[in-house]
């Protein structure tokens, strides 16, 4: 069994160019609340629902995304500017917050992910880009990688 400090040290070894401590904290706390031993849709939602109230706020998502950017450190290309996490979160919310209430529910995330399994794979790999491919060559959908 590994405690949070040990978990942070493990993460630091994988991301030596940045500060992995904040992101490792979020991941550790998510694991702590999920004893099923697998990365599931609910786990992914829980990673971003930092206060466990059943909603992902922009602030919660921005905190996690900022932690990911900090973890990547100097390896981001182009280098991250201070506003990058906020811009990323704005793009995510435009795609997923279907009722535009400023929060993402598990139902909204499920609806988005059900449109494209690559989105779930991207989230489960902790990819901050949330790559989404169109479900059909003739159907296009906004991507987070394009404003």
Automatic annotation (TrEMBL):
Pfam families: EF-hand_7. The keyword Zinc does not apply. The keyword Transmembrane does not apply. Residues 36-71, 84-119 form the EF-hand domain. One of its GO terms (molecular function) is calcium ion binding. Transmembrane segments: none annotated. Coiled coil: none annotated. SUPFAM superfamilies: EF-hand (SSF47473). Keywords: Calcium, Metal-binding, Repeat. This is EF-hand domain-containing protein. It comes from Hyalella azteca. The lineage of its organism: Eukaryota, Metazoa, Ecdysozoa, Arthropoda, Crustacea.
């Amino acid at each position: 069994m590994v405690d949070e400090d040990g978990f942070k040290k493990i993460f630091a070894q994988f991301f030596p160019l940045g500060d992995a401590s904040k992101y490792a904290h979020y991941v550790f706390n998510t694991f702590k609340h999920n004893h099923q031993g697998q990365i599931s849709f609910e786990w992914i939602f829980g990673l971003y629902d930092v206060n466990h109230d059943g909603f992902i706020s922009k602030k919660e998502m921005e905190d996690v995304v900022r932690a990911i950017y900090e973890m990547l450190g100097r390896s981001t290309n182009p280098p991250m500017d201070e506003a990058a996490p906020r811009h990323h979160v704005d793009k995510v919310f435009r795609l997923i917050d279907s009722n535009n209430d400023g929060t993402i529910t598990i139902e909204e995330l499920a609806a988005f992910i059900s449109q494209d399994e690559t989105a779930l794979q991207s989230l489960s790999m902790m990819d901050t880009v949330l790559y989404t491919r169109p479900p059909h060559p003739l159907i296009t959908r906004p991507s987070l990688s394009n404003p």
